[in-house]
Design goal:
15% helix, alpha+beta, SH3 type barrels, 206 residues
Length: 206
């Protein structure tokens, strides 16, 4: 009887130690997995939410924002989720998005890439421009005048040299269109850009 009681007491003690170890491990893992990074969540309709991601699954993203508290965003409405980078906040702590238009200048381009899926249209005095990010670090574009003469296609591949430096290579290929259909030419170019989409210095030639 004494042996049975001693065995029972020993079993209970070991079970308690094991359970305590399991609970401690679960609690430790939960603390370890808390993500304190700040993310930018952009939806397909253009809304932007900044905060820490509490959880996400196949159905939704739950983000804790500073000004609006917890917000649940359906996953099908999420366009992108990116970690907040240094320099993306102004002096008031407000998020300043990087403009896709900063990947080029008036007429010419720089070495900064369009992200895959980004695109934009520029309306100039002489005519429109259309540009698409078709792959990582690779973009295509079309430039023309309001009369459709000439029509110039552009292609650019960007190589990241560091956090604040990029090198780009590409070409311009044009045609005289409907007025001068036999006229055409190709101009390769290279560009070195120091900086990011907010502020940069560019050197190019071609």
């Amino acid at each position: 009887m004494k042996l049975l009681s001693l065995s029972l007491l020993l079993s209970l003690l070991l079970t308690g130690l094991v359970n305590s170890g399991v609970y401690a491990q679960v609690e430790e893992d939960s603390v370890r997995k808390v993500d304190t990074k700040v993310y930018i969540v952009e939806t397909v309709d253009g809304n932007i939410f900044m905060g820490t991601i509490i959880s996400q699954d196949a159905k939704e993203v739950l983000i804790l924002t500073k000004d609006r508290g917890e917000i649940s965003i359906p996953k099908y409405q999420v366009k992108s989720i990116k970690e907040l980078e240094a320099g993306q906040l102004n002096s008031k702590g407000e998020y300043v998005p990087s403009e896709v238009f900063s990947t080029r200048y008036f007429i010419t381009t720089n070495a900064l890439p369009l992200d895959k899926g980004e695109n934009y249209i520029l309306w100039n005095l002489f005519g429109p421009e259309f540009h698409w990010g078709v792959a990582d670090n690779f973009g295509l574009g079309i430039m023309t005048t309001w009369g459709g003469v000439p029509i110039i296609g552009t292609a650019k591949y960007s190589i990241k040299l560091g956090d604040k430096a990029s090198f780009g290579i590409g070409l311009l290929a044009g045609t005289g269109s409907w007025i001068f259909p036999r006229f055409g030419g190709v101009l390769p170019f290279g560009a070195l850009t120091i900086g990011d989409r907010r502020a940069n210095l560019n050197f190019s030639g071609g």
